[in-house]
Amino acid sequence: MATVQEYMSKDVIVLEPTQMLYHAFATMELYHLRHIPVVDKHEVLVGILSDRDLKKAMNSHFSEEKQDFVDAVMLTPIEDIMTKDVITTTPGADVAGVARQMLSNKISSIVVVKEGETRPVGIITDTDLLRLMVTLLPGG
User: Fold this and answer.
1) Cα separation of 124 and 126, whole Å?
2) Domain locations along the chain
3) 14 — phi, psi (to 5°)?
4) What is the band of 14 on the pLDDT scale with cuts at 50, 70, 90?
5) Cβ contacts of residue 33 below 8 Å, gap of 6+?
6) CA-to-CA distance for 92 and 5, rounded, in angstroms?
7) Residues 103/87, Cβ–Cβ less than 8 Å
8) Is the CB of residue 91 less than 8 Å from the CB of residue 34?
9) Average pLDDT, integer, range 7-31
């Protein structure tokens, strides 16, 4: 059985809910990320921010004047648009089960936490699952 730990990204970059969206944009751009777990000051997972969340926030203010747009979007706290109901898994979970969970929930990442803990130790994404799939294909 292939486990999440074998394929997850382990160097998890996190944001805090009170940080502004401009920080999230910059972090995603700098590290080429599409999903960032959000933790409080005690490193407890409180949400996840995706590039789709950012796009929705931008689209909702798109018709505003330029400065209003910048103020409305870039100066919005992450907690205002992040997904708060975060689906998590553990490092020892079966990758196939996690892939099914992602499909059934129509999501492209799941935050990894150790059993009984709340601090992210990894994240597994659709890209990680594609990497696994390539190794299983002929010539992979």
Assistant:
1) 7
2) 4-136
3) -125, 160
4) very high
5) 13, 27
6) 6
7) no
8) no
9) 95
Task: Tell me the two tokens of residue 19.
Answer: 């940080």
Q: Which two tokens stand for residue 134?
A: 């390539």
Residue 4 phi, psi dihedral angles, 5° rounding: -55, -40
Residues near 114 by beta carbon (within 8 Å), at least 6 away in sequence: 90, 91, 121
| Helix/strand/coil percent split, the chain, to 5 | 40, 20, 35
pLDDT at 88 exceeding the cut of 90:
yes
* Residue 47: CA count within 13 A, CB half-sphere: 19
User: Is a pLDDT exceeding 70 seen at residue 65?
Assistant: no
- Compute the average pLDDT of residues 78-103: 96
pLDDT of residue 70: 65
What 3-state DSSP class applies to 19?
coil
Domain 4-136 CATH (choose: 3.10.580.10, 3.10.28.10, 3.40.1160.10, 3.40.109.10): 3.10.580.10
Q: Return the structure tokens found at 26.
A: 């910059």
